């Protein structure tokens, strides 16, 4: 209905609906916490809530998107130089900034704390601190990078890290659930057949197994696999 005295606008022409532009992937980070205290290496995984729009009811590693606050987090130990260099490396000519690369690692450590109650770093009692600890990035390995294909309700450019629990002085029995992940479990990296996991998670686990078989210490210096979609084809390359 138009206001009195105002002329009605002519009807707009009916256009054919165009395909929506693909969502731009957002920076994200995920972390594989590894327990090697027994005969087999185990990794911590949990089930995403059914209410999530992205990957509901599937088992994943702790992780999430990188927040602006991650760029400002203090830390007690920095990334290994080889890890920092690998994070800066992209498929494009222009590398990531040191600040952005480090923020990805800090996001992974923060998400592990929020989703599993695990702190990698030095306890901190400062009031109003964003985290109750100073993150220690020293022992993080950069394992893989993957971009969610177009057509998904959420798209992320995720960097996957790994750290051994004993190196980070973490007791595998002291793991808490949160509102983000349910049914947290230590899963044998060689057998996750009992869980519903995303395809990319299975691929990253396979990369983990290959890395452990090549060197059980998972050295910091390594080529990093990068997964993405190009012209509707799933591509793996090395950074």
Care to describe what's here?
This protein is of the alpha+beta class and 239 residues long. The chain has a single domain, classed as Nucleoside Triphosphate Pyrophosphohydrolase, CATH 3.90.79. Helices cover 18% and strands 27% of the residues. It is built from three helices and eleven strands. The strands form two sheets. Strands 1, 2, 3, 4, 7, 8, 9, 10 and 11 form a nine-stranded mixed sheet that branches. A two-stranded antiparallel ribbon has the order 5-6. β10 and β11 form a beta hairpin. It is globular. The chain starts with 25 loop residues before the first strand and ends with a strand. 34% of the residues are buried. The N terminus is likely disordered.
What is the topological layout?
Layout (H helix, E strand, L loop, with lengths): L25 E10 L6 E7 L10 E2 L2 E3 L15 H8 L9 H19 L4 E3 L9 E3 L5 E7 L8 E9 L16 E8 L10 H16 L10 E6 L2 E6 L1
Parallel strand pairs: 1-8, 7-10
Antiparallel strand pairs: 1-2, 1-4, 2-3, 2-9, 5-6, 7-8, 10-11
**Highest-level CATH class:** Alpha Beta
CATH architecture: Alpha-Beta Complex
CATH fold node name: Nucleoside Triphosphate Pyrophosphohydrolase
Give the structural class: alpha+beta
Looking at the structure, what is the overall shape?
Answer: globular
Please give the alpha-carbon distance between the first and last residues.
59 Å
Flag low-confidence runs.
Answer: 1-18
Count of runs of 4 or more consecutive helical residues: 3
User: What is the CATH superfamily?
Assistant: Nucleoside Triphosphate Pyrophosphohydrolase
Q: Into which percent range does the helicity of residues fall?
A: 10-25%
Succession of helices and strands: EEEEHHEEEEEHEE
Strand content: 25-35%
Mean pLDDT: 88
